[in-house]
Amino acid sequence: MNTVESKHPRAVAVMGAGIVGAATALALAAEGHAVTVIDRGDVGAGTSFGNAGGIVTGAVTPTATPGVIRSLPSYFLDSNGAAVLRPAYAFQVLPWLFRFIAASRPARVATIAAALHPLVSNAMRAHQDLARLSNALDRIQPVGWLKVYGSDAAFSKTALERELMTRHGVNFSALRAGEIADLEPNLSKEAYTRGLFQPESGFVNYPMGLVQAYFKGALERRAQFAQEDVQDIRPIGDGGVSVRTQQTVRRFDSVVIAAGAWSKQFASQLGDRVSLDTERGYHISWGSTDGPLLSRPVSFPEKDCVLSPMHDGISLASGDELAGLTAAPDFRRIRALVPFVHSVLPGTRLQTVQREWMGHRPSTPDSLPVIARSPRCSNVFYAFGHGHLGLTLSAITAQLIAGMVGGHAAPFDLAPYRIDRF
Ligand SMILES: Cc1cc2nc3c(=O)[nH]c(=O)nc-3n(C[C@H](O)[C@H](O)[C@H](O)COP(=O)(O)OP(=O)(O)OC[C@H]3O[C@@H](n4cnc5c(N)ncnc54)[C@H](O)[C@@H]3O)c2cc1C
User: Fold this and answer.
1) What is the pTM for the complete model shown?
2) What is the pLDDT of residue 290?
C-alpha cells in the first residue's frame, strides 16, 4: 500500500477494536487522519481473540453451497453436527436462514465466489502492508492452509471447491497421504487419505497479538483510544456524525462501524437494513505439548474443526452455532471432539486444558462482508460481516475503507459488498 497522506485529513471514529477495527484505524492513521478508536472492551478481546489464525487466500467458496438445504434438519436434530440451531432462537434467525438458503443456489455461489476472489487474493498483501507499518511482519507466517480428509469419498465432495479455486486461479494442490505426512509428520496417518493445500495462505499464531500490533501502529500515528460503550450514532446538521457513548457525546467528520456481530443495531439507527447474525464458534486450547506438534493450521472438514499451533499451545477451533448474541455458551459439542484430537495427535501430552472460549462470528447469509458507505449518511462507513474470514479479510477491508474515507478510486468493484444488497 502506498500510504499517501490525505490532502483532507478528517476526524474519524472507528467503532470496534477487533481485528477489523484495529486494521482500519491503522490504515486511516497512516493516511494522516485523526483517528479515535472506541470499544467498550479491551483491544482484540472480542471474536478476534480466539480464531484459528488462518489468512486463507483461497477461500472463494461461500459457507452456503448447493445441498445445504438438505443438511438443515440436522441443524435442529443433530447436537453433534457441523452446525446447530438452538430451538429458542429459531424464529429470530429465520429471515437470515432463508437468505442463507437462497445464497446456496449454484448461480449465486458462482457470483459470490467471484466477489470473494478480489478480497481473498489481496488479503496477504494487505496484511503485509499493515504489518510493515506496525513492525508486525514476523507475526504472519507464510506456511499455507492445509485441509485433510479421512476418506476418498469425503475428498470427492470437494469437487465444487476445487472447481471454484481453479476458476479463480487459486494456487492449490490436491495431496496424497505421503505428501501430507511430509508437511505434518506428527499427524496420525490414520487421520487422512487426501488433502488440499493452499501454499500462499498465511497463519497468525497469536491473533490478539496482531490486533494489538495494528492498534499500536495506529496509536504511534496519533490515534486515540476511548474505552466506552457506544449507544448511538447519528448524522448532524453540519455534515458530521455524532457518537454518543455512556460517558459523552463527540462529533466526528466520519465514523467507521466495525463492531463485528454487534454492528447491526447501529446500521438500523441510521435506517440501513442489513441481514447480519452470528455464527458462534468455540475453541479449546491446551497449554502443554511435547514441542511443536504442527507447522500450520490443519482443517478437518468432516469434523468441522481446525487444529492450530498457537503461541501458547495447540488450539482446537470448531462450531457453527445459531443462538444469537446473548445466550450462554454450550461447550458440549467442542468437548465431544477432544477424543478425536487425541487420536490425530497420538502420543502427545494434551492433558492441560488452559482455556475454553466462545466467540461471535459476524455473519451475513451470503458470506460477503459489508464494506460500504452508508447510502443514508454519507460520512458513515461500514466494515463488518466478515463471518468465517474476519482475520483473513481485515487488512484489505481496512485499505478499502481508508480509500473510501480519503476519496480514492477503488481498486476493484465494491458493489457486491454494499449494505443495501439485502
Ligand atoms: C472459532 C473461530 C475460528 C475462526 N477462525 C478464523 C480463521 O482461521 N481465519 C479467519 O479469517 N477468520 C476466522 N474466524 C472469524 C474471525 O475471528 C472473525 O470474523 C473476526 O474476528 C471478526 O472481527 P471483528 O473485528 O469484525 O469483530 P470483533 O473481534 O468481535 O470486534 C468487534 C468489537 O466491537 C466492540 N463493540 C461491540 N459493540 C460495541 C459497543 N456498543 N460499544 C463499543 N464497542 C463495541 C466489541 O467489544 C469488539 O471488541 C474465526 C472465528 C471463530 C469464532
Assistant:
1) 0.97
2) 65
